[in-house]
Write a structure and sequence with these properties.
Elements lengths: L6 H5 L14 E5 L6 H18 L7 E4 L10 H8 L8 E4 L3 H11 L12 H7 L12 H14 L2 H8 L5 E3 L2 E3 L15 H6 L2 H4 L8 E4 L8 E2 L3 E3 L4 H4 L1 E8 L2 E8 L17
Parallel strand pairs: 1-2, 2-3, 5-6, 6-8
Antiparallel strand pairs: 1-9, 4-5, 7-8, 9-10
Length: 276
């Protein structure tokens, strides 16, 4: 005899089907790098070691870098060099803009109203290009203008073109890839840049479902996070020494990470991602 369905079950909203990555493809999303070229190099090694196995009927694997390549860590210029090197080989590569790239470009274009960039990690970026930051308290307007001019002269044109050409978001299957998050009240293609690059609590705390499962960085956490709304992969690489990515295939996902410890120890095999 069938038991009567409870009212709660009768009126509970239907659960959406699990998000799926495009059939026959494997995708990765890489969290905030923030000037850690050493960790990026380790992760690129891991991805390249898996490239042949990850090539499917639909084509080469895809890697989406979620932005915030510069600032905070000591090797911003070297990170961009690596991203421009054609690595990871055997992958389709997509590069998104983060709020720190936006802030860097704004300072270079108009330094006086954007001096706060140096307090948000921009000083480390200046140093990576061989430019000495101004004294934060005693610098005159002329000093700020001079530093911005020195930075414009020091950043190679190919780096400028890279920064200016970064994408706002990427979309594959049921997944949307953004730097910070989204406003769930707007469709993906109508998102404001302020939300794509800067949103935090309003996105993280929302229970409103979006059209896609959102893969993002921007908000650092000790461990990566996943639920039916979002996957967060920023593990604060510049401070924690751990750079995290997520691997997507079909309806499944798995986290993998590289850390400072791997510089003095053998890296785990590429087919054994570090699980959190």
């Amino acid at each position: 005899m069938h038991k009567p369905m409870s009212l709660l079950r009768m009126f509970a909203p239907a659960q959406p089907p699990p998000a799926r990555f495009p059939e026959g493809r494997v995708g990765y999303a890489v969290g905030d790098i923030h000037g850690r070229a050493d960790l990026l190099a380790l992760l690129l090694d891991r991805l390249e070691a898996a490239a042949d196995a990850d090539r499917g009927a639909g084509g080469e694997p895809i890697v989406v870098f979620l932005g915030d390549y510069v600032d905070r860590g000591p090797q911003s210029a070297q990170v961009i060099d690596l991203l421009l090197s054609g690595r990871p080989r055997g992958f389709v590569r997509r590069f998104l803009r983060g709020n720190h790239e936006q802030a860097m470009l704004a300072f270079m274009a108009d330094p006086l109203p954007h001096r706060a960039w140096l307090m948000q990690g921009g000083s480390e970026t200046l140093l990576s290009y061989g430019v000495t930051p101004p004294a934060p308290v005693y610098a005159l307007e002329a000093d700020w203008l001079e530093v911005a001019a020195q930075l414009r002269a020091a950043v190679p044109p190919v780096h400028i073109a890279f920064l200016e050409g970064l994408e706002r978001f990427a979309e594959y299957g049921d997944y949307a890839f953004v730097h910070a998050g989204v406003d769930a009240a707007r469709p993906l293609h109508a998102q404001a840049e302020a939300d794509l690059y800067w949103i935090r609590e309003r996105f993280l705390n929302s229970r409103r479902r979006f059209s896609h499962l959102v893969v993002h960085g921007h908000t650092p956490a000790e461990r990566p996070y996943a639920d039916q709304r979002r996957i967060g992969v920023d593990t604060g690489a510049y401070a924690s020494g751990v750079l995290t990515a997520v691997r997507l295939e079909g309806e499944g996902h798995a986290f993998l990470a590289v850390s400072e410890k791997e510089r003095s120890a053998a890296s785990p095999p590429a087919d054994q991602p570090v699980q959190f």
